[in-house]
Write a structure and sequence with these properties.
The structure is a homodimer. With about 150 residues, chain A is an all-alpha fold. Chain A has 2 domains: about 10-75, Multidrug-efflux Transporter Regulator, Chain: A, Domain 2 (Orthogonal Bundle); about 95-145. Helix content of chain A is about 55%, strand content about 5%. The first copy, chain A, has helices spanning about 20-30, 30-40, 60-75, 80-90, 95-130, 140-145, and strands at about 50, 55. Chain A has a two-stranded antiparallel sheet. In chain A, strand 1 (about 50) and strand 2 form a beta hairpin. The radius of gyration of chain A is 25 Å and the shape is elongated. At the A-B interface, helix 3, helix 4, helix 5 and helix 6 of A face helix 3, helix 4, helix 5 and helix 6 of B. The structure holds a DNA duplex (30 and 30 nucleotides).
Chain lengths: ~150, ~150
DNA sequence: CATCAACCCTCCAGCCATAGGAGGGTCGAG
DNA sequence: CTCGACCCTCCTATGGCTGGAGGGTTGATG
């Protein structure tokens, strides 16, 4: 691969923008701290370094970070994301495996939603009976105290 | 539900049962570990000790633990529970303060529920398009990868 | 060329709520 | 007296993230 011998005009490669970690952070929406953390726990592999020991991120690295960001936004754990990434990398994957992972996650979300709704229902009910004035009588406290 | 008053059989003080931490744990549903932790962080005050340095829990202590357990089940943080406990203790409280705390918590639950539902919606949509067979093509992966 | 701010580096600690274990002491029934 | 079930304290880890200390690098200025 010819590396810009005779650079007629400097910077011949347009798309090969290599970013520092700060640039990668603002591009991906993942904080600098977290990018380093993801690297430390092996969620992303070690990236290149400059002579001054700065991490450099190419387009592929940024894509990976963006993937992680989206997955995180959808509530996947880092461990699930690890599996999603390896499925992404695996050209011979079965989409069934991806789907199974996602359906399991949906089920998890369902049960968390149900738990939160149940809490909310009970609390609404308790709060309903509470006058919310300057007197101490309070069915919320009574309810928590087991009346 | 009359519980055998006048049992005439010894035990003149029926309610003054003092329990070890294990008993307190099974009575309250809070683990032994957590009871000690709650004490360490000052959520509950230090209880009595036997000659052998075992913690002892009287009915009041158990009530407190049960209160905490119920509040925890309703999703309150330990910090919120701290405030609820001091409101419980405060005979001159305003029920408005209790209600405000609870309404804020309900709002918090609302936003968590909304966030989870939004994740679930997106995931369902992605999963719908995925064949889930032995081929690699997968809109879920594509979606995460930013297609 | 020196300086300076804005970066970057590593390492370490803390958050919340909980679980687990090591290494010991205490209790009560047999 | 022994044994198992309990209890004690102290330390570690989890997940996912934030913060800071103490330093090095970079690149635009004066």
């Amino acid at each position: 691969m010819r590396i810009a011998t005779h650079v007629s005009k400097e910077r011949p490669k347009p798309a090969a923008t290599a970013l520092n970690i700060g640039g990668a952070a603002s591009r991906s929406g993942i904080s600098v701290k977290m990018i380093r953390y993801y690297e430390a726990i092996g969620l992303i592999s070690k990236v290149g370094r400059t002579a001054g020991n700065y991490r450099t991120y190419d387009d592929g690295d940024i894509n990976r970070l963006e993937f992680i960001k989206r997955a995180r936004t959808l509530g996947f754990s880092l461990d699930e994301i690890r599996r999603l990434l390896s499925l992404w990398d695996d050209d011979g994957r079965n989409s069934a495996d991806v789907k199974a992972l996602v359906l399991a996650h949906i089920a998890e979300l369902d049960s968390r939603i149900a738990a939160l709704k149940s809490m909310r229902g009970t609390l609404r009910h308790l709060a309903e009976g509470c006058d919310g004035d300057n007197r101490p009588d309070c069915p919320i406290i009574d309810g928590l105290a087991g009346v």
